[in-house]
Amino acid sequence: MSVKSLLTHSFMVAWKDLMELFRNKMGLAMLVVMPIFMMGMVGFIFPSSSSMGHVTIGLANEDQGYGSYLNAGSALAAGLEEINNSTGQITITHASSLSEVQDMIQRGAIDGGIVISRNFSSSIASGKQGTIIVVTDETNPQMSSVMRTSMTNLFQQIGTQVARQNVEWLSPDVNASNSLAVVAPYNVQTEGAVAGNFNYFDFMAPGLMAMTVMMSVMTGLPAAISHEREVGTLDGMMVAPINRLAVVLGKTLAQTARGLLQGTLILVLSMALFGVTIHGSILLIFALLLLGVFSFVGVGIVLTSFTKDQETATMVMTSIMFPMMFLSGVFFPIQQMPWFMQNISQMLPLTYAATALRKVMVFGAGVPAITTELTILIALGIIMTLIAVPVFKRAMTR
Amino acid sequence: MTAESNAMIEVKNLTKKFNDFTAVDDVSFDVKHGEIFGLLGPNGAGKSTTIRMLATLTRPTAGTIKIGGQDVVKDDDRVRRLVGLVSEKVILYERLTAKENLWFFGKLYNIPSDILNQRIDDLLEMVQLSQWKNAKAGTFSTGMRQRMNVIRALLNAPQVLFLDEPTLGLDPQSSVEIREFVRKISKESKTTIILTTHMMVDADMLCDRIGIMDHGKIVALDTSKNLKKMISGADHNILNLDVANLTTRAVASIRSLKCATSVSQESSTRLKVHTTGDEAFDTIIDTLRAEKCRINSVEHLEPSLEDVFLHITGRDVRDKADQKPSMQSEHRHFMMPRSRVR
Fold first, then answer.
1. Which residues from chain A sit within 8 angstroms of residue B84, using beta carbons?
2. A350 and A296 in contact (C-beta within 8 Å)?
3. Looking at domain A55-183, does it have CATH number 3.30.530?
4. What does the pLDDT look like over B235-283, one tens digit per residue?
5. Which residues of chain A does B151 touch, with a Cβ-Cβ cutoff of 8 Å?
6. ipTM
7. How far apart are CA B63 and CA A136, in angstroms?
8. Rounded Cα gap, residues B109 and B103, in angstroms
9. Which of A305, A287, A318, A128 lies closest to A210, judged by CA?
10. Does B164 touch chain A if contact means CB atoms closer than 8 Å?
């Protein structure tokens, strides 16, 4: 009977909160705009590491040639121009020397540079390696790293071609069909755990969903309750013969519904706009989101009990939210963080919810593959609820 | 313990401390079944805190409250079924309609849907809000909101109704409506009513008995009539003098008289004097004559509750009317539950 009452009253509170939400046109608009804004922002600001669009490169051919030999530097430069013309990925600007390239980078005229050294031809002719210098812009670490890897790759490939010709020319046993195996005996291929084309969004969308749903409950709950306390309507509920928990449970239900709505919106957006594909079961995804809420709601309740007004609640929430966003591996993989940061992120429920969700969405994993995360989330939820309920009951009857 | 007495509410040695601040200080009183009981006093006197403790919203630091024989702390849920609260802040959700608001709160009392529907219609009818049934509460005027606030508290047909400053911020017209409505509820359904106010008219016109609160204590408790008797009679009088050429010197000499306990100049010609002693009247007239004042009229005033308050506390009720120290400390207290005295 008392459980039935608790549930009835909770549903009434949830109904009331949702009615208020759906009648608030501005709030509703923000509810929809926020995920769009978030997705767009994160999607377009964070660069995807493989592509290099509209990069300007300064090319300086300092090679002085070697006697009657072919000027190898010019041939290389010509080859680069040809690649440039066929792919259109980079724009090449000519420069005369290393120092001019460096100067141009400093002025911001180019993003990076390639310098073919003075003794390039002579080194090759005398049986030494020819040196090519890739100049990077240190103020742009992302671009530097992209430049370094892609240029190294490019010259490696050109080098391999040259080597094949040399080997074919040196030995009668080597011909066009086996020269590659002689020069580069290993063929390295990368393949993901699941087949398909993945981008940064496939990594980020699950985490973003988990974050939105859980944050919505954690921030929404204290804000909603302290708002009602300030306006005075909380007294109306408190003076009624209802279990104090019905208030918090009802509000949690309403906030969860709000969060799931936003989460779904993010999912739809990332599928429609950013080509994210779901490999796992949708049902499991929503179950995980709900479990995330459960693991987290206790924190929200405890904070509700200790914050006196809406302003304080919002301030406390914001200062908790930001570290959580960045430490839970939503935007950056946890493995990239220093060890002490990793320790912190292992204490955050969002980390596990995001990881499990990623496994389900990207790998199509089932329950067996995420038992660790499930166990931790359930345990965290039970512990936090056990702490939160008495704290809240105490706080409500001061 | 006066078991089975006709006391609906028994308050014994009630004390509430917020950290170092004692909001309610060892207060005891009984309220009879069907009575309208007023707590009168300036803001910060502890009226609201007392009401909140009676309504189970705040836990007493010490002392006991029994409502309908149930202990407010131990049987809080039973007490909640018996009471209704009209709080100082209007309890209304702006984005819900009048009906939805009442429906929501009614459902918290487990009222079956058909009965609740009927009751909502009756209550709206009673305060002439039927035509606004499906209008959002956010569009209501202050008077309409307060009427909603009152009928919300009546949803569970409470035996005890608490009204915390029911006429605060209302225009005279709305105040009259609310007062008439409260009287009607009391008469028709024999509801026991406790109201707090710092408005003398409210207390005077509505209440069967009045407890005057100041600094957390009940300093006087009786019917309005008896309270006024305290300060009128052979020994104590209030004179309203109309003097044609009232000079500051004359006022000063009256003030210096021993028999004049309080003197207030109400206009350029009018003087209100509280007096003690049998010869006060003569002394005052003599003094004015000595100052060559021409007395147009002397009126022997019936004392008002305001005069009673002034007499007991030595201060005017409205002195502190704009301050709200108790609310502040309540919130502060909430931040630090550990320091609560249990």
1. 239
2. yes
3. no
4. 777 888 888 888 888 888 888 888 888 888 888 888 888 888 778 888 8
5. none
6. 0.78
7. 79
8. 10
9. A287
10. no
